[in-house]
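Could you show me some protein's one-letter sequence and the numbers that encode its backbone in two labelled lines?

___
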Amino acid sequence: MSAPLSGAWTLTPVKRLAEAKSRLATVLGREARAALQLAMLRDLLFAAAGAGRIAGRAVITADPRVAAVAAACGALVLREPDSDGLDHAVARGAAALHRLGAATAAVIPADAPLTTGAEIARAVGVAEATGATLVAPDRRRDGTNMLVFVTARPPVFAYGPGSFARHAGGHGALELRLDGAAHDIDAPDDLRFLAAAEGAPRSRAVLAAAHRFQETAP
């Protein structure tokens, strides 16, 4: 990046595609899961591009296919040297954005394709106005589907099962309910919800193609 960053940036960590969406293996093959992961990333990046308060979008990954898709969508690619866990990836990405001059980061997982630009703008606006860390839970109030903070004062990253309670319990953290962002795609039931949703057109197209293939397979 030749010019310094500024303003608020989204940050999306994406694991290697070979490891993506393993809980969907009972209904989708490996390539279909990889295609879905890439489509969800595209949907999320396009939503972030339409968020008025966002200066740019960053993706941190060790996977070259993910990096190529992110770059094609106009995102800044932060190369992760090795896949050693989500907390480390987010910490590296947040530190990189801070060094480059971004003031605020909104961490959004790549499996939340129903997140809207309006939700991102709302969360960033509250974080910028209050200086607080914003935590948006998943619909089960277990995981963290958006984490917004000032890059100079990052929270302690504690992803994994029960992460919402850990992040929300941090000093000065505020909860924010976001309907679209709350729906991450992780289990077979989530695919049915996604297929019936109005957003995430690229993700829904991949699901429809996979379904047609399954119907015509011998």
